[in-house]
Amino acid sequence: MAKAIMIQGTMSGAGKSLLAAGLCRIFTEDGFRTAPFKSQNMALNSYITEDGLEMGRAQVVQAEAAMTEPSVYMNPILLKPTTDTGSQVIVNGEVIGNMSAREYFACKKKFVPDILNACRHLAEEYDILVIEGAGSPAEINLKENDIVNMGLAEMLDVPVLLAGDIDRGGVFAQLYGTVALLEKKERERIKGLIINKFRGDKSILDPGIVMLEERTKIPVVGTVPMLSVDIEEEDSISERLEREGNKAGQKGAQKAAIEIAVIRFPKISNYTDLAPLESVEGVAVRYVSAPQDLGHPDLILLPGSKNTMGDLKWMRTSGMEASIFKCLKKGTMIFGICGGYQMMGESLADPEGTEGGGTMRGMGLLPVETIFHKQKTRTRIQGKLEALSGMYEKLSGAAYEGYEIHMGRTMLTGEAQVLAKKEEILGVCRGQAAGTYIHGIFDSSGTADGLLQMLAEKKGLDGAALKGTDFREYKEKQYQALAKGLRESLDMEAIYRMLREVKC
């Protein structure tokens, strides 16, 4: 049976996911079969496994770091927010329905057997499990029936590392306050504290670390610097959504050769589709939530949405749709993925009440119509884009590998070039507009390079200068850098001693 260690945090965004990914890579580099595990994940970024099941992307990233195939056992419960007070509940990769926060809180203990079964499967296959908590273990209003933090640690009898975020300030108060709010048996389970996201001279922290250790009786096993790595964050609290441009455009989008504006819907999902474009030097990718900030980009990208009709309504009432049409009149191109693709059609209908019911006029940019159904499409796909002409000729025959994850079917209603198809049409293009259901379409260098060259040539630039590296190779270098940074800042000998103490 596997050994296990758990990463908890003083708050959401303390860096648990990245620390877990880094430990996954370190243990793998040291010769151990390693897997991530998170019992319950709330996020709008999800992934489809080889067997057609849905899980959170954070554990996919951690599985990639561990150099193993993602499995729904790594994330048995996924909550995808649909409103401010409710979520779609996915258990073992299958949708079981929508629940309000109160409804889910009242019944979540019934999913404990699913959690333990998933952990047991992983423990039989791997040597080490790196388990991630959620939020904070000291949320005293949620501690009853906890299945993701200390409640889970007790069920599995695993040691805990508690991480605090010094970049937000008050890290000593974060760590001490969290420990102080825990019960005695919970405090005893914490074997080490981590100060995360530090900038500056570490020696300045030493007096505070001594006092923290004296008051908590728990050793600080590492001060982790703000690591310069480009690895997917867990969900829409990501700093990625706040940036004005990627590495190439940090001094202003006007400095970049190509500018891409991504519409930040209230229920934006799977925005990790854009990560390959962000990694290309000379390309600025920024996320826009107000029409006055749209500017005049070369490309507007409509990403996925967990509530397509609701987010389209937001675009109309906020004035974003009108601003997009002004950009299109000036020659800007537009590309939609999944929910964004659905919005670009002529109409959307929801006869079964999947998104609240009713019908809506689409943006009218593509000759397609979407009818929502309660059955979710979940499948991995690969192939080549169709032979295209005109503006999208650079994408002709480009290989892709990705996945579909959406409610409803989209049907062609008029003349357009088919972008991709399998049993059904997976995307179309017409004029300046294109859309597809293929998540991960830009992970393949052919599609990303083709799109960027098309945008560059439209501006009279040399598109060859914008060719990016293979995205899988790029990510591998990031995982290696993450592991190296953690090895240099964590007491790995102490962490291995913790692993020898308890089994999963």
From TrEMBL:
Pathway-wise, it operates in:
Cofactor biosynthesis; adenosylcobalamin biosynthesis
Q: What are the positions of the active site? A: C338, H439
Stretches assigned to the CobQ/CobB/MinD/ParA nucleotide binding domain: 5-227
Keywords recorded for this protein, A-Z: Cobalamin biosynthesis, Glutamine amidotransferase
Q: Which residues form the CobB/CobQ-like glutamine amidotransferase domain?
A: 259-445
Q: Which SUPFAM superfamilies match?
A: Class I glutamine amidotransferase-like, P-loop containing nucleoside triphosphate hydrolases
Please give the InterPro entries that the UniProt record associates with this protein: Class_I_gatase-like (IPR029062), CobQ/CobB/MinD/ParA_Nub-bd_dom (IPR002586), CobQ_GATase1 (IPR033949), CobQ_N (IPR047045), CobQ_synth (IPR004459), GATase_3 (IPR011698), P-loop_NTPase (IPR027417)
What Gene3D superfamilies is this protein classified in? 3.40.50.880, P-loop containing nucleotide triphosphate hydrolases
Matches recorded under PANTHER family = COBYRIC ACID SYNTHASE (PTHR21343:SF1), DETHIOBIOTIN SYNTHETASE (PTHR21343)
**UniProt similarity note:** Belongs to the CobB/CobQ family. CobQ subfamily.
Q: What does this protein do?
A: Catalyzes amidations at positions B, D, E, and G on adenosylcobyrinic A,C-diamide. NH(2) groups are provided by glutamine, and one molecule of ATP is hydrogenolyzed for each amidation.
Q: What name does the UniProt record give this protein?
A: Cobyric acid synthase
Q: Record the organism.
A: Claveliimonas bilis
Traced from the root, the source organism's taxonomic lineage reads: Bacteria, Bacillati, Bacillota, Clostridia, Lachnospirales
